[in-house]
């Protein structure tokens, strides 16, 4: 299902995407969005509510890229997305980067409106260059009492120290002797956080990067930057609430 609501007064095009899209519905949504965008004026922003949008196939993603490239040509400034389903967000983020469109993802429509109302979020001349580098969730640095467990390469690992995390992912350190079992893109299964104040739900995670950073790990360690994959809204809310509370305490 999709809904397109142009607001010429605010120069914002509101789009809602939900459920599963086949190629026919993706084409219908693309046509409707491009028609509305063509009426928005020389410069406009887009707010997309995709909290209930399921991952789509390559054909639908190609339609999305076509829409983004069209809007970028006619005056699109930025896209703010309200997201919850991680895999859907990852798909759209990748296509947006390929289309050269700046974006940021937030928790709610209220957050989206607040960002566009702030000068630094909408009108500041440097805002666009920083837009796609903004973190989707708040992140905190944590001590050795924050650890995780997971399975990779047929082996179980536990009490893996975390150095920072958010509702989106975390950074951990492991002994370098295990680096042969790890690579960028590897999927970690049965991943769970080992802390009494955090959800113990088992999820999967993906290694986005491996690094040796002397500020964070010793010469005998390797650092893992990981993104959480099979999360739920409750999981995200619990972690983000914990991060927010710790931020206030600090």
| Strands, total number | 12
What percent of residues are in strands? 25-35%
Give the termini distance in whole angstroms: 43 Å
Give the CATH superfamily of the largest domain: STAS domain
The radius of gyration computed from the alpha-carbon positions, rounded to a whole number of angstroms, is: 20 Å
Specify the CATH architecture of the largest domain.
Answer: 2-Layer Sandwich
The number of distinct structural domains comes to: 2
CATH topology of the largest domain: Transcription Regulator spoIIAA
On the 0 to 100 scale, the average pLDDT is: 82
As residue ranges, the low-confidence spans are 119-135
Relevant terms:
alpha+beta; Transcription Regulator spoIIAA; Thrombin, subunit H; 2 domains; six-stranded antiparallel barrel; 12 strands; elongated
Question: What does it look like?
Answer:
By secondary structure, the chain is an alpha+beta fold. It folds into two domains: 2-131, STAS domain (Transcription Regulator spoIIAA); 140-249, Thrombin, subunit H (Beta Barrel). It has seven helices and twelve strands. The protein has helices at residues 23-37, 58-74, 86-99, 109-117, 119-122, 127-131, 233-249; strands at 2-7, 12-19, 44-53, 76-82, 103-106, 140-141, 147-152, 155-165, 169-175, 187-194, 203-211, 221-228. The strands form two sheets. The protein has a six-stranded antiparallel beta barrel with strand order 7-8-9-12-11-10. A five-stranded mixed sheet has the order 1-2-3-4-5. The longest helix is centred in the first third of the chain and has 17 residues, at 58-74. The protein is elongated and about 60 Å long. Residues 119-135 have low confidence and may be disordered.
């Amino acid at each position: 299902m999709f809904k397109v609501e142009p607001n010429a007064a605010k120069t914002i095009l509101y789009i809602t995407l939900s459920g599963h899209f086949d190629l026919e519905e993706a084409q219908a949504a693309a046509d409707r969005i491009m028609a509305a965008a063509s009426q928005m004026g020389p410069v406009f922003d887009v707010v997309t509510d995709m909290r209930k949008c399921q991952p789509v196939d390559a054909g639908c993603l190609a339609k999305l890229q076509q829409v983004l490239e069209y809007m970028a040509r006619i005056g699109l400034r930025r896209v703010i997305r309200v997201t919850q389903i991680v895999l859907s967000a990852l798909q759209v983020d990748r296509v947006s980067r390929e289309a050269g469109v700046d974006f940021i993802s937030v928790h709610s429509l209220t957050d989206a409106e607040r960002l566009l109302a702030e000068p630094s979020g909408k009108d500041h001349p440097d805002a666009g260059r920083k837009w796609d580098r903004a973190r989707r969730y708040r992140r905190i640095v944590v001590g050795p009492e924050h650890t995780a467990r997971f399975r990779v390469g047929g082996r179980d690992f536990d009490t893996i120290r975390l150095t920072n995390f958010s509702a989106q992912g975390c950074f951990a350190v492991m002994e370098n002797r295990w680096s042969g079992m790890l690579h960028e893109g590897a999927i970690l299964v049965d991943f769970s956080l080992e802390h009494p104040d955090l959800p113990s739900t088992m999820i999967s995670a993906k290694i986005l990067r491996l690094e040796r950073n002397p500020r964070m790990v010793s010469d005998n360690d390797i650092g893992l930057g990981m993104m959480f994959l099979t999360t739920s809204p409750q999981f995200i809310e619990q972690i983000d609430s914990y991060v927010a509370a710790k931020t206030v305490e600090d």
